[in-house]
Amino acid sequence: MSDEHKHDHPAPAPVTPDDPGSQALAEAMRSSFAIVKFLMVALVLLFLASGIFQVGPQEKAVILRFGKPIGTGQQALLGPGLHWSFPYPIDEVVKIPYKEVQNVSSTVGWFYMTPQQKAAYQATGNLPPGSGTLNPVVDGYAITADRNIIHTRATIYYQVNDPIRAVFGFSAGLDSALNLTGVSNIVQNALNNSLLYTAAHFGVDAVLYSDVAGFQEAVKTRVIQLAEQEHLGITIQQCNVDSIPPRQLQSVFDQVTEARQNRNKLLDDAHTYENQVTNSADAQASAIINEAQSASVLYVQSVQADAKAFSDLLPNYLINPGLFDQQQLVQVMGRALTNADFKAFVPTTASGDPMELRLLLNREPPGQKTTGSP
Fold first, then answer.
1. Is the alpha carbon torsion for 295, 298, 300, 306 positive or negative?
2. For residues 152, 158, 160 and 161, what is the CA-based torsion angle, rounded to 10 degrees?
3. Could you give all domains of the chain from N- to C-terminal order, each with its CATH number?
4. The pTM is what?
5. Confidence tier at 154 by pLDDT (50, 70, 90)
6. How far apart, in Å, are the Cα atoms of 139 and each of 77, 109, 130, 135, 142?
7. What distance in Å separates the CA atoms of residue 288 and residue 275, rounded to the nearest whole number?
8. Whole-angstrom Cα distance, residue 42 to residue 47?
9. Does 347 sit behind a cis peptide bond, omega within 30 degrees of 0 on the bond before it?
């Protein structure tokens, strides 16, 4: 019985005490694991903290989780301020310069310049002289409607007013994070297209001299049409266009410009002389018309006065025609004979018949007075 009880409850094994080296190693392992745990927690916290990002006052942001946006429509846009997302490669943040004016420049239509020539041109504004002939392999150019060659370039300024379209609207088959860069590329392609298309519809004189503003506005209008057609979600603010003749033909264009200036001067002189002659003729015509109108008024007034005078005399004539005739005759004779040298009155007989009067018309002239003695 006692033997079976001994087999059921074996005696505990004796504890062998550790040596000092093992104890030190165990303590070192425990310390190392504590440091590793601390470092892992710190790395996790640092990893999570790296997901904090800030959106500027003129920016919108979209969080892409494994390439797909979090949220739909306007809900996917994050406004200005601090935000958090999982760090890359889980999440990716796309910042959109919303309402910030951006610009792109054309890459066609202008001649090739080395970096040194570009720097000198930006510093002084003087273009490098043309050498040899135009090389279509490296030199850009545009052909006008009258088949002339010019150099032209443009810069377009635009704002993103619809971030959803700008990032996700036009290239569904591409990575959304690349779409914002694609907007800039598409605007640049639209600008290149507009520059060459518009130049083909304008004459060289209009592009370079007579209708520079119209050409620039036409380029801008074309870019706006293409941007709306592609639904880019942008607003075109301004378009600057610079056009020059080929440098190899600069002297010829200078001669044409000088001839045009002389022509314009002659036209201006002719217009000035035309205006002087026209103004003088208008003044003379106005004076003649005014004089004629004054004479017409005076003549009408005189006729009216004469008519009134005759009308006033009519009652007197009706009362005594004979006396009226005698009075009028006396008045007329008085006016007619006022300055007469010789006057003869023919009396009448008692019956009223005129008496016979004989006149010697060829009278001898009076003798001339002499200054000598009689």
1. negative
2. -130
3. 37-96 (no CATH), 102-245 (3.30.479.30)
4. 0.54
5. very high
6. 43, 8, 11, 5, 10
7. 20
8. 8
9. no
